Amino acid sequence: MSSTHAYEVRVAEESADREACFAVRKEVFVREQGVPEDIEYDAYDETAVHVLAVRADGVPLGTGRLLHGEAAAAKTGGDLTVGSLGRLAVAQQARGLGIGVALVRAIEDVARARGLAAVDLHAQTHALGFYERLGYEAYGPEYPEAGIPHRAMRRVLRPTG
């Protein structure tokens, strides 16, 4: 990877990092995809673990979040051992650099650290292949979410190392 594409992925613990996550989501979901802003941000943002990909010069490139425990239960069929990966977004200028993969793997690492056995997600149907390459399997029928076709997917986590 050249230095012009150097980036790091980290848990967004500082308020500036969380704001950068929200800015990427606004760019991708609200501006590009037309998701209404009032449904893009929700009460889950308060308790979710957010991850941020940021370029070496501080420019935010991508984000995602993990819901766990009771917050994830409504999205995972009530199974408290399953986390819910969501709001995965990569800025347009940063696509094709492996950032999406790095964000998914970072979220999975957080899920493992919290003792979760699997991760579910609601994938936009155009992204099914991306998630399948990362070991996720689709289940259930296609459904609309924010007016965009989705499918539920799951990956069982195995310990690393």
UniProtKB/TrEMBL annotation:
Transmembrane segments: none annotated. Keywords: Acyltransferase, Transferase. Its EC number is 2.3.1.-. It is an enzyme of class 2 (transferase). Pfam families: Acetyltransf_10. GO terms for molecular function: acyltransferase activity. Residues 7-158 form the N-acetyltransferase domain. InterPro entries: Acyl_CoA_acyltransferase (IPR016181), GNAT_dom (IPR000182), GNPNAT1-like (IPR039143). CDD domains: NAT_SF. This is GNAT family N-acetyltransferase. It comes from Streptomyces spinosisporus. The lineage of its organism: Bacteria, Bacillati, Actinomycetota, Actinomycetes, Kitasatosporales.
